[in-house]
Amino acid sequence: MSERSVDDFRSRARAWLEQNAPRRGDGDNEPGGPGRADIAAQQAFQARLYDAGFAGITWPSEYGGQGLTNAEQIAFGEAARDFALPVGAFVIGLGMPGPTILELGTEEQKKRYLPKLLRGEEIWCQLFSEPSAGSDVASLTTTAARVKGDGEADGEWVLNGQKVWTSGAQYSDYGAVIARTDPTVPKHNGITMFIVDMHAPGVTVRPLKVATGATPFNEVFFDQVRLPADSVIGEVNDGWRAAVVMLRNERVAIGTMAAPRTSPLSYDSLSGLAARLGSGADPGLRRKLAELYVRERSVRLFGRLLREEAMAGRDPGPRGSVAKLAGAELGTFASLVAADVLGPAAAASDREDVREVLNAMLSAPGSSIAGGTNEIQRNIIGERVLGLPKDPGVDRSTPFNQLRVGTLRRVEGGKVGSDRRTGDGADT
Amino acid sequence: MALILNGDEEQFQQSVRRLVAERSPLPKLRELMSSGQPFDPEVWKQLSALGLTGLIIPAEHGGAEAGYSVLSVAFAELGAGLVASPLLADTLAAGAVARLGDDAALSRLLPGIASGELIATLAVGAQLGEPQLGEHSGTARADGDALTGEIAPVLNAAQADVLLIPAAAGDATALFEVAAGTPGLEVTPLPSLDHSRSLARVRLDGAPGRRLDGDAAAALGFAADLANLAVASEQLGGMGACLEMTTEYAKIRAAFGRPIGAFQGVKHRLANLRTSWELAHAALRDAARAADSRPADFPRAACVARIAVSASYVDAAVATVQLHGGIGFTWEHDAHLYQKNAISQHALFGGPGEQLDRLTSLLADAGA
Questions:
Q1: Helix, strand, or coil here: A98?
Q2: CATH number assigned to the domain covering B120-216
Q3: What is the pTM of this model?
């Protein structure tokens, strides 16, 4: 890879995007994700992206990829930042199950699933979090058991249980699901990852309404769902390793995502709103806005530093968690500043720009939870960046069927299923 | 230009790190505290020999013209080791003179600063930029060439051969050069919280000064940006040293049957500090690159870097004392040296409120 060929790739990408993709502008911050109606349009766009040679940039060519390096991938990402690519439905498949199949899947799985994913023909979701297993996703209770008895295909499995916080389940064709296949061993050792056909009998998808009132996620129920023997990703009972591969990909994806400047909680948006609402002259608020600018800019620069390191061949590794944590905390801080900007308008207002900010404030805690909570990120930074010792918990050595998991006592007043919806949203 | 260090910068970083470890380890600062000496002249010679005094001085005046990114790398290493030296004073004086562009002053002052033989200081007190009359840290006023007033605290004023005094001359601010020992100049060392930072009060009572040509307000503005870059670099280095020291201790100190670093109360605090450090580091790299290649961005970028690191360093230094437990609160332990440095640095050359106000007006100027 020479610097020149990367530059050429970047200019080709930019030229193609100018011709084919809509520019990022106000009004593209749809919090709910794509609706079913524009899925066909997204599939058509992904197919054109594929034909132009910008899908699967780092994936091997035998599975439909371009066989290029991280440098080209990053170059494309930078070129694409100013555009609103209508490919939301594929972000999960390409970012998580895809790379995992690439790393751990069989030759047949790679040939069967990856090209169709890249061409936009099939959409994927990821099914990890459960009502009783969020941060501690390894304590999941969805089960997959081998089918016994006569007349059944050898090694077929049957899947039962519930997943939660699943993005895109309502329009996905396939999902990567982890399920318990041996409850008699410690929790990390009895999990297997499967490919599940989301159209199979026994799969039910229900929208999940969140704190803002929107329904950007789903609950997915499995009732006696048959899984063929060749749907196992990696080895039986070695699914935790596959899950770790997938979560690592997720964290890097979330952490290095540059927040669009048009976000209602950005410095630009909030200082503009402060001017319109007349709160911009207050010296205390001006200082807070300046501090927001510093934090926002630092987070963005750190993302750039990580990308530069990756281009120079240095693996950012667990420092992706620094980006994830910093991004979430930026949202928390920005919400506090936003409350000051709004003043009494926070309580009641018929202004559209105020309501947008309020919606973003209500959404902000979500980014401290999804993709691994702030607490989990701090553990990762402490243990894997700083090298501090792990907390010697009992959960690593006790057989799963003797562990306490989930919510131990029903909380009074927690009517919305305090024992059901405690997942941390690791499936984004 | 890339934020990450290039090969030359990494090599230079290693050289400065080695020099600090060999010539000025922390016991050196304790020696100076006992003897009352502001810095070790031998260490100063070594720093000059490595070229630190000439990094931003043009070759025609005896410097290396190595640039601000390298300068930032050097200051970070000195900050990590709490090395006492007049380098910051010299750097700000050299930066102001260079921006002023008074040819005679350039030839008179820069070669000596570049070689380390001349110690110069810019008498700006604790504030940023052009002094405002009537402010607490004081200003001077010029009646012809005779200077009167009081400025404090001034970096290395008691060791300086030359003081550059900003003074109100009629409607404008001008810079005056005053040699040490000039009649009417009185320099009184102040007890510094942080011994690595030698500070003094400067009183002028009709002291004659040599008025320098050029735009003094622009020169002082640039010196303020340079101070932000240099101090933020030192602060980032100091913060990194605190984190490293405390993280290592958390791995080896056991309580309740396990290393204290296994407890989330300790682990998460260190993870938060590491996160702040990473963000400040990225902001600092951007400021250093801006100084070299995007001068119009430099004031804003330097201010961002300074705000990103300044309060976080204080946090880290306090956490260093506290997470070490009892041993961290003893005189023998080095934690208090960093705490003093962090508090002092946070206050000098524009405290937190002043920095935020400066950034606000820079952003307003940019039409942001």
A1: helix
A2: 2.40.110.10
A3: 0.90
> What homologous superfamily is domain B218-365 in, according to CATH?
Butyryl-CoA Dehydrogenase, subunit A, domain 3 (1.20.140.10)
Q: Which two structure tokens, joined as six digits, stand for A112?
A: 């069967």
Q: Which of B10, B252, B356 is most worth mutating to test chain A (most A CB atoms within 10 A of its CB)?
A: B356
Among this protein's residues, is A250 annotated catalytic? yes
Neighbours of B14 (CB within 10 A): 12
Inter-chain residue contact A389 with B3, CB threshold 8 Å: no
ipTM of the complex model: 0.95
> Which of A121, A250, A309, A352 is an active site residue?
A250
pLDDT in tens, chain B (368 residues): 689 999 999 999 999 999 999 999 999 999 999 999 999 999 999 999 999 999 999 999 999 999 999 999 999 999 999 999 999 999 999 999 999 989 999 999 999 999 999 999 999 887 766 665 444 346 799 999 999 999 999 999 999 999 999 999 888 899 999 999 999 999 999 999 999 999 999 999 999 999 999 999 999 999 999 999 999 999 999 999 999 999 999 999 999 999 999 999 999 999 999 999 999 999 999 999 999 999 999 999 999 999 999 999 999 999 999 999 999 999 999 999 999 999 999 999 999 999 999 999 999 988 64
Beta strands in A304-380, from DSSP E residues, in sequence order: none
CB A219 within 8 A of CB A127: no
Of 2.30.42.10, 3.40.50.12230, 1.10.540.10, 2.102.10.10, which CATH number belongs to B7-115? Answer: 1.10.540.10
Which residues make Cβ contacts (< 8 Å) with residue B261, sequence separation at least 6?
A382, A386, A388, A389, B247, B250, B251, B267, B270
Domains and CATH numbers, chain A: 3-123 (1.10.540.10), 125-237 (2.40.110.10), 256-385 (1.20.140.10)
